[in-house]
Protein 1
Amino acid sequence: MTDMHVHRARLRLDAALEGLADAFRGAVAPPDEHNCECHWGSAEELALLKVPGVMLDPDLLRRSWHIPGWGDPGAVLRRVLPQLAGAVVDSRSESYRYRDEIGVVLARADWQVWPPEQAAAVREFLHAFWAHTLVTPDPAAYAPRTLVLCVEASGELSPWLDDWEALDHPAADRRLAEAVDEWGDDLLADELPWWTWHDDKDGMVAVLTAWLTRHAPARLRAIGAPDDLLHRLRLIGLTGPARWTDPHWPNHTD
């Protein structure tokens, strides 16, 4: 039987990818754009960025967004973004493992001040990809890294947590358990579980900690999460001596 949540999320993601293709159709790198051949690529490869719609091989696609040194990095990113978005949602692609870095590249490109139709297409893509990540049965789907893509690209954490909280689906609960397991040690040290491009790291830690300790326990208990994961989550919500004198603190001694 088809899971309607997954079906709707896939339709939304496909529509968002089509929206990106429409919004950035005809985008090209500036005629005088250049980069160092020794670490970026050949003149023939550079010429491809100045022709709209030509598909790039995966290695050239990665170099186009990843290598610095462009005169107008935003224009280069707009040129490759529809193809890059299509690759980054495919767990079999090379781009899939670079989701966190791609979020930083989007932030540096100031996509939110691009023309309104382009900015709206990027925003909808991020929300659609996040929603699909939370419900997809694909075992390779890894919610923490997609969340980092969205947070780094947008500079905000709360909207993505709100989307997660509003989604009542067993896969979303399993993704939550994966995230607590992944983030637990960092949050117990009051550290953000990923490197961030943005300045308000402490604020993000506070938002993430408050959200997890308020929202996650009931959902994790409902899916039969192990006791050690639940205790780690509880410890994240404690501060000072209450945390490190707790019997379940990893280094606790009587």
Note: The CA atoms of residues 40 and 63 lie 6 Å apart.
Protein 2
Amino acid sequence: MSLQAEQHAYTVLEARARTQHINPLSWQFELSINDAYDIAKASDIIRAAEGETCIGRKLGFTNRKLWNKYGEKAAICEPIWSSLFDSTVRYVEDNHAYQSLTGALQPRIEPEVVFKLGRTPAANACMEELADCLEWMAHGIEIVVSPYPDWKFEAADAIAALGLHGTLLIGEPRILSSASRQHLAELLANASVSLSCDGTLLSAGYGSNVLDSPLHAIWHLHGLLQKQPQFLPLQAGEIITTGTWTDAYPVQAGQTWGTAFSGIPLPGLSVSFA
């Protein structure tokens, strides 16, 4: 599979560049999770060679309430991750963004919490030690996309397709104090977010939906990377987005979506799509 990973990576990247649908790779041949991460690694190498800079990671399928909604042969019941590149991440000023959907295949919106690592965690770091490595947290809205028709795919397909990542919009970062890090997992678990479209409330979700807490999600990623020597472990300076608190809703040009938090000191964001 490793010999073919680059070829499949080019297939996925070309579909993205041309805004074209492709059939899930798992429909064409047996595709394991390990195979999919080989393709992801090949994609990372290609993108870096073309001038993009890797700045972090994104987690997907961390919301257990959504696991039964995805996966054709079997429900997706484990988180996945992919690399984040500078070309698809931007910071939002004044809590409002204008976002073009040009080139976005079947775009959907996900409200998340994003973190920056201030220090590199030890390989055997416990969750409390991992929290001590965080520099800031911020509200993020991820636009996820799918090259697979009707969002039908398996977990391995999602990994191979850049984790279904489209764009990450990051709100104002809030520096984490030592005191806030001590209770961060519990604070996030008990917080909630609402998601509205053109002023109509569509959904609400809790931080506990995300592997019990977004901090748990980062810890899960940290442990997973210890088993994937082809990838670097978490590094100081990385941006990590931890997965959606609500279902992922389709978005269209002309709509304005907004979020609001309760329980954590993060401002909501609004995004107008064009």
Note: Helices lie at 2-18, 25-28, 33-49, 127-132, 155-160, 178-182, 184-190, 214-225.
Protein 3
Amino acid sequence: MNWTEITTDLENKLSSKRFHHTINVVAAAEQLASRFEVDLNQARLAALLHDCAKNMPDEKLLGYAKKHQIKVDRVSRHDPQLLHGPVGAVLVEERYGITDVAIQHAVCYHTTGCKKMSTLDKIVYLADYIEKDRSFPGVEAIRAAAKTDLDQAVILALSNCICHVVKIGALLHKHTLEARNDLLIKTRNL
């Protein structure tokens, strides 16, 4: 599928609010890709597709994961919406014909982050977090950091996410902790 076909398909599959969010994430990813010298087409496509499985119900996500041998850990079993990234990564190729492994990886980990995030992974994660309609405590500081230091901005976003998840008493995925720890070790040369 080409850009127009993918966009039309997503507009038909996602809620209008989710589609609007997706377009905002594309715009944020474009800015970040230009700033941090990442392939603009990869960033745009990964951002466009990041939530392609978001509107799937829990049962369908779990079934799709089983069918495609996606590992479902204990946290994801209890919070199946965390699977919209890994399931989306499969849909990227299966439904949309995108075979670029870097794009698939960025879609897979756009919600939780992961160890050894590529620059594209960080851009999609951060674009999803700071798109222009996001409004929560700390977002402006993260946006400011994203203008000069991608790693610091992602660390701030991961830290903010962890604090929020703990505050509301939700399950925290180990990939998020691993992503933050990995970036801290990398940036502090520990």
Note: The chain has a mean pLDDT of 96.
Protein 4
Amino acid sequence: MSPVRRAVLFAACALTSMAAMAQNALDDIMKAGVIRVAVPTDYPPYGFVGIDMKPQGLDVDMANHIAAKLGVRAELVPVTSTNRVPYLQTRKVDIVVSTLARNAEREKVVDFTTAAYSPFISGVYAPKSVTIKSFDDLVGKSVGVTRGTIEDQELTKVMPQGGKLMRFEDHAATIAALGSGQVPAVGSSQPAVSRLMQQQPKLGIEYKLMLSQSPNFIGIPKGEEKLRVKINDIVTEARKSGDADRLSNKWLGRPTGDIPL
């Protein structure tokens, strides 16, 4: 056999092997009785380690919900924002439930559910004792923001005359200003403010107004269409049944809202 023909046959066998590997993820999960789910453990309220040293949060609850609907056990795999996609590509995990946004660049290497399971929220937060029901209620108030963030940009657009933006250089300083009472409210992402809500519950910090929202999707290994369809069906059912709203209310203090279904 000529070297060229041998190379062609080798390539054909490799492609056949790759095709056989594709579409097997769901079957492998069901056979093993375990689904390995990438979740955050340092990003409250989506995922963090509780006082019992166990992972908890919205993404953790959704991972467990998916496992329960499949009838398998969830093996939670802690990931960071930088390694969650590589973990999926190298099959260290079966799916990613870790505040993963869907974009064109990621879609080159990862498949996504069509339905989103939760929102990623930036909003105005303040103690319960501070009445803020509309942006007009910011008149006479100083609102802390981190300079150059989307919260800074959005509040600059809607801040009424008589309200004041106090810009800080990083998220820690912004949140510290709220915790110390230097400002009565802040424009912040949910994860940035949630640690203060956990550490100082007596402050009664709560979500007041929406600034921006983007959906979180579940990442699936490229080419695993059977698994993608199954997970998408579970997420869609959770959205329609109210289970997704229940988790969102539990961890974010508001329902899922207008995100893709």
Note: The CA atoms of residues 150 and 212 lie 8 Å apart.
